[in-house]
């Protein structure tokens, strides 16, 4: 199943769970700053920011189903369907970018790199990138599926869910390499509950585009 098809099909039922650290976010991003949520889903994180007083918010997602749900659920948010690899915003135009559980949905190295390059393009010099995503698990359940699907996808950490979505968990070294053009401000491991109710290793990252 194609990734877009999967997310369109589950757009009305899936509830995303990765929390936003609003207190830490406010240390780096002002209430008047322009914030872009890449892979915003139905706008859950942007709505939390809105409730914390942020007003200058844009969300983009390639799933039309998710965007349509967001328009129904949060009609006051600016949510837009992303139709190609390029982000439809000008160079150096955004103060902060949020990327929550998006890398896990992109299993190919080159596609992740393309996305990070686009994010860096639209961020202003000194702009902030806030990522929360999944690290490689060390439990039996995860190791089993990493080993099962490594020959299929060519990357340890990539696996397919029973319902058809392809996901990826990452090593910390890989994430550091992927984000090498940003200046790291925060990077710490944490634990998340996944959208299917399992506990999973994750990380929070704040990086800054060089001025």
Properties at a glance:
211 residues; alpha/beta; Rossmann fold; two-stranded antiparallel ribbon; 9 strands; globular
Structural class: alpha/beta
Number of helices: 7
- Which residues form runs of ≥5 with pLDDT under 50? none
Number of individual domains: 1
Give the strand tally. 9
- Whole-number average pLDDT? 91
The fold-level CATH name is: Rossmann fold
CATH architectural type? 3-Layer(aba) Sandwich
- Tell me the distance between the termini: 41 Å
How big is the Rg?
16 Å
Proportion of helical residues: 25-40%
In N-to-C order, the SSE pattern is HHEHEHEEHEHEEHEE
CATH class: Alpha Beta
Sketch the major β-sheet.
7 strands, mixed
**Gross morphology:** globular
CATH superfamily: Vaccinia Virus protein VP39
Strand content: 25-35%
**Strand order across the biggest sheet?**
3-2-1-4-5-9-8
Short description:
With 211 residues, the protein is an alpha/beta fold. It is 32% helix and 29% strand.
Describe the structure.
There is one protein chain. Helix 5 (109-122) links the parallel strand 4 and strand 5. The chain has helices spanning 3-9, 22-28, 44-51, 64-73, 109-122, 140-153, 172-178, and strands at residues 35-38, 57-61, 78-81, 94-100, 123-134, 158-160, 166-168, 182-193, 199-209. 32% of the residues lie in helices and 29% in strands. The protein has a single domain (3-134, 171-195, 202-209), classed as Rossmann fold. The strands form 2 sheets. A 7-stranded mixed sheet has the order 3-2-1-4-5-9-8. A two-stranded antiparallel sheet has the order 6-7. By secondary structure, it is of the alpha/beta class. The protein contains 7 helices and 9 strands, in the order ααβαβαββαβαββαββ. The mean pLDDT is 91.
């Amino acid at each position: 199943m194609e990734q877009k098809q999967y997310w369109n099909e589950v757009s009305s039922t899936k509830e995303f769970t990765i929390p936003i650290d609003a207190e830490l976010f406010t240390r780096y991003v002002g209430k008047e700053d322009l914030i872009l949520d890449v892979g915003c889903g139905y706008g859950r994180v942007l709505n939390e920011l809105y409730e914390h007083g942020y007003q200058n918010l844009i969300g983009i997602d390639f799933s039309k189903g998710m965007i349509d749900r967001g328009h129904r659920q949060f009609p006051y948010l600016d949510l837009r369907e992303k139709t190609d690899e390029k982000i439809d915003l000008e160079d150096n135009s955004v103060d902060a970018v949020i990327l929550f559980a998006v890398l896990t949905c992109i299993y190919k190295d080159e596609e992740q790199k393309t996305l990070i390059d686009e994010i860096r393009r639209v961020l202003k010099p000194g702009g902030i990138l806030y990522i929360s995503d999944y690290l490689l698990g060390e439990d039996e359940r995860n190791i089993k599926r990493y080993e099962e699907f490594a020959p299929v996808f060519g990357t340890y950490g990539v696996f397919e869910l029973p319902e058809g979505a392809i996901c990826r968990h990452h090593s910390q070294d890989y994430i550091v390499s992927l984000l090498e053009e940003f200046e790291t401000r925060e990077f710490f491991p944490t634990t998340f509950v996944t959208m299917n109710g399992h506990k999973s290793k994750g990380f929070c990252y704040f990086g800054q585009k060089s001025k």
